[in-house]
Amino acid sequence: MLTELVDLPGGSFRMGSTSFYPEEAPIHTVTVRAFAVERHPVTNAQFAEFVAATGYVTVAEQPIDPALYPGADPGALQPGAMVFRPTPGPVDLRDWRQWWHWAPGANWRHPYGPASDLAGKADHPVVHVAYPDAAAYARWAGRRLPTEAEWEFAARGGATTTYPWGDEEKPGGQLMANTWQGAFPYRNDGARGWVGTSPVGTFPPNGFGLLDMIGNVWEWTATEFSAHHRLNQPPKPCCAPPGPADPTISQTLKGGSHLCAPEYCHRYRPAARSPQSQDSATTHIGFRCVADR
Fold first, then answer.
1. What is the CA radius of gyration of the chain?
2. Which Pfam families does the entry link to (predicted)?
């Protein structure tokens, strides 16, 4: 069953931020047309229905073309994905390779490697979906991936504050999204008891009634990433059918994830944005779809 769509009227809003990371600037006015957005990210159960109906094979499950990775050890080019593993203790946060590891056999069915499964996680966001995987699901569903502007408009929920719920990260001490709790990357105390992804809807909705726009999983958008918002260039067509994953092209991710911590990744805000190559499949990236109205 597809996720319920929430109709949004569209309108103008102030996109971006100058208070956190340079790629979020400049703040500028953007107008989006009316559209509808899925109330929550696509879940494991929903993605499984898509795969069962189509026989689709995700990027993480496909053989790797050595020509796309010149100089790589051929023995290492096995189907798999990037998996987060906590470090034993404090580390230099400038070196992400200490907690991200290539895991042969990791994919949406086995998020932490061949020995893991989705038991008890049917209603968690699907992960290990690369950009073409998300786009393929959207086409099957008769929907599409959102542009960055559409995504940010939806995530703000009509608010102009730092977070959709206000300017305080934890108003009254209340945790509002699934983000890292503890000391990154070695101690995660859990977000309302959840370490890793949480069931969609565990945390409060935003002003538009949308769930998990902030935290839980990063979400793919149809907008190619740039080092900052480009005001003098029209965006590329958002909905052209994608070809095979291109590791040289990065799409814009939005929303932050369960791995975001203020000392390392304070990107669990509507304005935050991050680049990710189209072929990337990780334990903290998912997606949701939109539809035209």
1. 18
2. FGE-sulfatase (PF03781)
**What is the band of 241 on the pLDDT scale with cuts at 50, 70, 90?**
low
Residues with Cβ within 8 Å of 128's Cβ and at least 6 positions away in sequence, in order, are: 58, 60, 81, 106, 107, 108, 111, 281, 282, 283, 285
Global pTM value:
0.94
> Which amino acid belongs to residue 169?
E
Read off the amino acid at residue 200: V
What's the chain's average pLDDT? 94
For residue 205, whether the previous peptide bond is cis, meaning omega lies within 30 degrees of 0, is: no
Nearest in space to 149 (alpha carbons), one of 293, 28, 276: 28
CA distance 263 to 44: 30
Cβ burial, residue 33 (10 Å; 0-12/13-18/19+): exposed
CATH number of 5-292: 3.90.1580.10
Summarize pLDDT for 26-38 with one digit per residue, the tens: 999 999 999 999 9
